[in-house]
Design a protein that fits this description.
2 domains, 16 helices, globular, 325 residues
């Protein structure tokens, strides 16, 4: 059987499986000492030979590799029925930290407020998501950083929501636009509006999974059951493949109210779905990033705010590997 393993596939497999020991796999495959490590850190100046790849393939298969694995992006909707709970910040920062690990990431602004586009410095986009949903135009994307792209939106998206309701296949139009580009990215993150509208349903229909951001206060529980019911309805009727990845607490303060709320949520809901251990603290650098229209990593890669999302990214990737195994 022909060996179709490539260096890019090997690197992608390790990016998705950060707990794998590079030197351990290297030695199992019988490669020269630290060759994999040296190749990965050579910025393209070193390569793996065909003989190296033949030796590597059975070892990687032992750890779960297959030809179809990671060929298409995982599409994740970032959702909540409320505004001001960190959806847009999570979309931007999780996307940026995924890029820092070597992944190719597309962010889709699917909120008519266009906040994601604005904080990434794309205002009044000439071409945007709304322009493509009912035309032959492909999904418009602009590059923000190396390996980070954005499909922008503004208030024009609100004007086509009635079309999503009235036109045939309206709530799967976004999915149809994403499908041709799934092999171009590792992750596609969709920033959803603060509602249970047709826009949110369309995003869920286009996704493999969904992530809920939650402010740890009692007001956040109001409507949560409605959101969970909507996700269940989408899974039952229009997108059977979607899964709920879980809840991440955002804008967390060190006080008894937040601590009590988090404990209550974990004790009552952790049996049904994951409540992530990593918490996103309430920090001023998030507001600075938005005001300066700069990503957190660009603004300060050593800040506590950026570290919060790096730690969450690590936990999230590890969780995805458990789900796939």
């Amino acid at each position: 059987m022909k060996n179709n393993l490539t260096l890019e596939k090997v690197m992608s497999f390790f990016r998705h499986n950060p707990s794998l020991n590079v030197n351990g796999v290297n030695d199992e495959a019988g490669l020269p000492k630290r060759k994999l490590d040296l190749v990965f850190n050579s910025n393209g100046s070193r390569k793996l030979s065909d003989e190296d790849l033949v030796k590597l393939e059975p070892i990687l298969r032992k750890y779960g590799y297959s030809e179809s694995l990671y060929q298409k992006a995982r599409v994740i909707s970032i959702v909540n029925h409320k505004g001001g709970v960190g959806k847009t910040t999570t979309t931007a920062c999780l996307g940026e930290t995924l890029v820092s690990k070597g992944f190719k990431v597309l962010l889709i602004d699917f909120d008519p407020q266009g906040n994601l586009s604005q904080i990434l410095g794309v205002e009044n986009p000439e071409e945007q998501v709304a322009d493509c949903l009912f035309t032959n135009m492909p999904l418009p994307v602009v590059q923000i950083l190396d390996n980070l792209w954005l499909a922008p939106s503004d208030i024009s998206l609100a004007e086509i929501e009635v079309d999503l309701l009235s036109r045939v296949g309206g709530d799967v139009r976004l999915r149809h636009k994403i499908t041709p580009i799934l092999e171009d990215y590792d992750y596609i993150l969709i920033d959803c509006p603060p509602s249970l509208s047709k826009l949110t349903v369309s995003a869920l229909n286009a996704s493999n999974s969904t992530l809920i951001t939650m402010l740890p206060e009692s007001s956040s529980l109001k409507g949560l059951n409605s959101l969970l019911n909507r996700i269940s309805e989408v899974k039952e009727h229009t997108n059977r493949d979607i899964v709920l990845d879980g809840i991440v607490f955002t804008m967390v303060r060190k006080n008894s109210v937040h601590e009590g709320f988090k404990d209550a949520v974990r004790s009552s809901m952790a049996a049904d779905f994951r409540v992530f251990d990593t918490e996103i603290r309430h920090l001023v650098d998030f507001q600075k990033s938005q005001a300066l229209q700069a990503t957190l990593g660009t603004l300060s890669a050593t800040s506590e705010a950026y570290r919060c999302y790096k730690e969450f990214c690590d936990e999230y990737i590890a969780y995805l590997q458990i789900v796939k195994s």
